[in-house]
Amino acid sequence: MLDAKRTEEPIVTDGSAWRQPGPGAPTSSSGWGARPTWATPGAPQAGPQPAPNSWWSDALADPWRDPDAPVVVVKTPSDEAPELEKPPPPSSGPRVGIGLVLVVSIVTALLAGALGGTLGYVFAVGGGGSLGGQIGGNAPLNNRPPESLAALAKKVLPSVVTISVRVGNGTSLGSGFVVSSDGHVITNNHVVEGGNDTATIRFSDATVATAKVIGSDPESDIAVLKIDTNGLPDSELAPVEFGNSDQVQVGDPVVAVGAPLGLTSTVTYGVVSYLDRPIRTSEGGTSRYYAAIQTDAAVNQGNSGGPLFDAAGRVVGINSVIGTLSEDQSSAGNVGLAFAIPINHARRIATDIINTGKARRTVMGVQVDASYQNPLGGARLTQVEAGGPAEAGGLKAGDVVLAVNGKPIEESWDLTALVRRYAPGDTVEIRYLRGTARAKASVTLVADAK
């Protein structure tokens, strides 16, 4: 768990990928990395039996008709698994107000969702929405207005894929999208991390192909795969259209597409709720930083690596982490706080990986004091690299950076996240505090030497 910097703020935590254990693998009931148990197909389930004349007595195994059954989707595992544990009975005590304790977890939306046995909670809400025009109306079926959400979904679904990777005794599940006619696919690094560099790709029409991981950058959480196109119809490779994440505004409508909880080709809709939200997650000893697009589009485990589209069907982000009220990653779910890596950042990293095999990270040549805390925020510089961008801009050790291009620094690591939003060669305005005097500096950023 990451330390809370200020007691009045919610605790921020990050967990490992949720992955399905293989046969004989141990399970745990709680904590990060907890593995769920799965119901054995066809096995009798304990519990109260219906009266012979109950209206649902002929459908004991149907969770949508049995009012006492849990509303879950169970995907049959390939190997025999233990019986699904029963949930504890509801508490009879008083309900604790959410205002008393708010624990917000930033968890890898990974899904790594235990394919072969993903449990999903599905709640279907009637109604429709549009991106600037009415959906359907009096138009014939399959002839929706081009500005409708239905038309957008039809346009982009062929470009979105579900990715599964064998990791140890389990399977990691995530999403991705085709970015070139020769079969390159972008996803999150945490979707493929720990695998053997081979993945299975499933298209929206159920066509299946294999792919190789050609490179990744754990700190940016970006990975690039290359599909084996032998025997694959050319029509299956429909590259996405890229948008410009620098032009996204708060309130813009967005559409997330992916495989939440293993439910492939799922489309959800929302708006951009914040821009350049500094995000840091830590997993496996690697810290990831980026200035995220925040959205209320429903994103869950399995959405990771999938695209976030604008109203014109152009990719503006990669869905990567979610905010949740649960500290247990296996039960984490969307609460209207999802975070996407801006596509300008992701595309730059992916291009580096394809062209050179590694990614360049943007830096300003400073080190910060991770222990620095101030009610006003800011990042205190402990070292300024000689001859580096920050020194050239006039910054010195001891200065407290308050903002980058107008975006405030609240935690010391915010500076890293906000700087990496920009490309090497970009010039940013730094507002800082030296003693009690406020000042500004122009800093031209560079690529690191890694």
TrEMBL record:
The keyword Calcium does not apply. It comes from the Bacteria. This is Trypsin-like peptidase domain-containing protein. It comes from Dactylosporangium salmoneum. The chain crosses the membrane at residues 96-124. Residues 353-410 form the PDZ domain. SUPFAM superfamilies: PDZ domain-like (SSF50156), Trypsin-like serine proteases (SSF50494). Residues 36-48 have a biased composition (Low complexity). Belongs to the peptidase S1C family. The keyword Repeat does not apply. Residues 1-71 are annotated as: Disordered. The lineage of its organism: Bacteria, Bacillati, Actinomycetota, Actinomycetes, Micromonosporales. Keywords: Hydrolase, Membrane, Protease, Transmembrane, Transmembrane helix. InterPro entries: Chloro_Bact_Ser_Proteases (IPR051201), PDZ (IPR001478), PDZ_sf (IPR036034), Peptidase_S1_PA (IPR009003), Peptidase_S1_PA_chymotrypsin (IPR043504), Peptidase_S1C (IPR001940).
